[in-house]
Amino acid sequence: MIVEQISIFLENKAGRLMEVTKSLNEANINIRALSLADTSDFGILRLIVDNIDKAKEILKEHGFTVGRTNVIAVEVGDTPGGLHKILEVIDSAGINVEYMYAFVQKNSANATLIFRFDRIECALEVLQKNNITVLPASKVCGSN
Description:
Blueprint: E1 2-11, H1 16-26, E2 31-38, E3 42-49, H2 52-61, E4 65-77, H3 82-92, E5 97-104, E6 110-117, H4 120-129, E7 134-135, H5 137-141
Antiparallel strand pairs: 1-3, 1-4, 2-3, 4-6, 4-7, 5-6
């Protein structure tokens, strides 16, 4: 139930993000979800892709600094309070959310939230005990 994400460190300059997408496009790698955070000097592009090993290899070949991170994908209904319920469960267990981002899957009425927790195994256990739908990597990443 753990999903692997890649993080790419980018200089904050024109065209650098396009170099990543061009490399992945040429390798026929599909981006399933992404988040981009920046400072004045650099950015961190976080990606969930359909082939993480190939993506990491291709990006390194093109000179990018790439890391892998474990995250958890949680499905939440499109209703008021959906995120709040998840955060209450996590907070009651003393788990910190380091960051999160969301996307919508094709043909779904629900959103998928990607969480990076400070204690990922504990968070996974707490979410499952509280009947919160944790998605397997195969559902989030697509084909591998």
